[in-house]
Every structure is written in C-alpha cells, then in structure tokens.
Amino acid sequence: MSYKAEYIWIDGTEPTARLRSKTKVLPTGAEPPYWGFDGSSTNQATGRTSDCVLRPVFTCPDPIRGGDDVLVMCEVLYPDLTPHPSNTRAALARLAERYADQAPIFGIEQEYTFFKDGRPLGFPSGGFPAPQGFYYCGVGADEVFGREVVEKHMDACLDAGLAISGINAEVMPGQWEFQVGPVGPLEVADQLWVARWLLYRVAEDFGISATLDPKPVKGDWNGAGAHTNFSTKAMREGYDAIIAACDALGERAQEHIKGYGAEIEHRLTGMHETAPWSEYSYGVSDRGASVRIPWQVEADKKGYIEDRRPNANCDPYVVTGLMVETCCAALEKAGLV
Ligand code: ADP
Ligand code: MN
Ligand code: MN
Ligand code: MN
User: Fold this and answer.
1) What is the pTM of this model?
2) What is the pLDDT of residue 47?
3) Ligand 1 centre from 86 Cα, in Å?
4) Ion ligand 3: residues, Cβ under 5 Å
5) Which residue intervals define the domain GS catalytic in the entry (predicted)?
C-alpha cells in the first residue's frame, strides 16, 4: 500500500519568490523523508551543482487528493544541510525560540486577486467595471466574482486542518481576503504558505489564476495587502505593552518596509486605506495609519495591534520575524514582560 505526499517549497525567484511542488509516492506508514530537487530550474543553484535538499517542516492532510495523502511544506537546504539563502524560515525559527517566553501570536489577512483572460475576474474586456463602492463584502452576481473558488478554498483549508479564521470579498472586483490565525509565528507562516498553495491549486481547476500582486490595477483601485495582527502575552494583558510595541515599530520603520514585500511603494501611497510608506504612524481605529489599535483594544486596555503595511506578496517568515525581533526585544528592554 502507498500514499502520495505533495512536497511544497519556496523557490529563489526575485524579487518575489514563488511556490513549487512535486509528488512523492511513499509506502503506507513511512514518514515523508528529506528529498531533493533541481535548484538550477528554480533560481536556487547553478547547473553544475544543482542539487538542493527539501526538509519537511509541516505536514497536513491533502484536501485535494483526500484519503491518506498529505501536503508537506518544506524548507530548502544545501546538500551539507545548512539553510539555503532563499530559506527565510531558518532565521524565524531562531527568533521564535529566542522569544518563546513572550508567547507571540499572529493573525494574517491575506488579500489576493483572481485573474482570467489577462484581467481581474469581473472586469469587462477592454474596459473597467463600475467604480469601487459596493464590492467589499458584497452579494449578487453584479458585485461578486469567484465565490465558488473562494468557498472551495476555504473548505480545503479547513480539511487540511489550517487555522483559517474567515474570508471576505474585497474593495476591488475579483479581489478577496482570507485570514489565518491567531497562532505562533512559525505556525502562521507555514500555514499561510500552504493556504496560498491551496488557493492556486483550487483556482487552477476553474481555469482561474490568483495573484498576490500588491497593486494589480493601477489608478483608483485598491491594492492587496497582508495586514498582520500581532500580540504577545504582555500585550494581551496590558496597554503599556501595546503602546511600547507601536513605538518600537516606529523606531525601525524603514527596515520593516524593506521586508514587507516588493513594490510596497506602489501600494502604500497614502490613498486607498494606506499610510505612505515613508512615514510611520499609529492610531486607534485608524485605517489610514501604518499600525492600527482596534477600538476594542483601547476600550479593554489590552489585546493586539494590526500592522497594515505588509504587502499581499510578502514573505510571512520575514514579516513575523521582523515583528517578533522588534517588538519582543523592546518589551524585554522596557521590562514589560
Ligand atoms: P479587519 O477588521 O482588519 O479586516 P480581520 O477580521 O480580517 O480584521 O482580521 C483580524 C485578525 O486578527 C484575525 O486574523 C485574527 O485571528 C487576528 N487576531 C485576533 N486577536 C488577536 C490577537 N490577540 N493576537 C494576534 N492576532 C489576533
Ligand atoms: Mn480583514
Ligand atoms: Mn482586507
Ligand atoms: Mn485588516
């Protein structure tokens, strides 16, 4: 007897890495072992020393194939088993361990856009749909495009056991969001990458592609982000830690911007519910700030913050790593843990 393991990994495409996957048939009962691939075809090696190693880091049921089949999220190593430069998970693993005592958790809102025939789903050929206004959380065939794919994707994530916590239609036609979390940094990032793979895979069967392009349509159309909601134990217990985290993010704002996804300047313009990439701000209920403190958090004097800056095409290993590094170090220094 045998089962199928779909090995998924992140390639070396620049500036934004892409997902790759291939299937290994394994004897029933065997754990998915280390495996390899041709790094010269993924921008991760040259032809002469082409072997790269896949190390399984997160395994879940495969909701597409069903049965005993599994999805296996991997990190990429050199043949000597040191992390490949494209492997951003290795650094996050160190940070997560270093600050595990602060119990950081994340909920990431992944926005994305469906495309068909070279244009966003719901856009007429050679023109534009009615301006934005009624598409966000809309209902009806004139406002909502691709719901059958969204529903299938949500069910696939649930069947895989991912911590998906909701979906909604977004401000631009064909644009949607799903949320993963709140769970720890490695968990949210591993699961977000698998959820992205499932999105592409489910949409494939409908002849539709999904893109994480942060600004898929130029002009007066919303971009796509990955708002990252974050808390530590201290933030969940008191307001001083909430404010200290917001201030700490301001101290390293430009380092964060650099790690929040390619072409972030095209999305963080100060328009369309964003703050300009060059200026850091935070505020209660403020969807025009870099970081928002939800009103409930101010009322309760504890909870979490929302970093609204990360792009849809960000690497969640990098984003959560930056937030843990900046905020947890600051909370520790301020004696707030
Ligand atoms: P928005 O109003 O910004 O659209 P969403 O409902 O889409 O908000 O997303 C809010 C996210 O915040 C969810 O992913 C949820 O898991 C996450 N979240 C809730 N509480 C916490 C917390 N204490 N720490 C971190 N994330 C949290
Ligand atoms: Mn949301
Ligand atoms: Mn949104
Ligand atoms: Mn949000």
Assistant:
1) 0.98
2) 76
3) 29
4) 177
5) 88-337
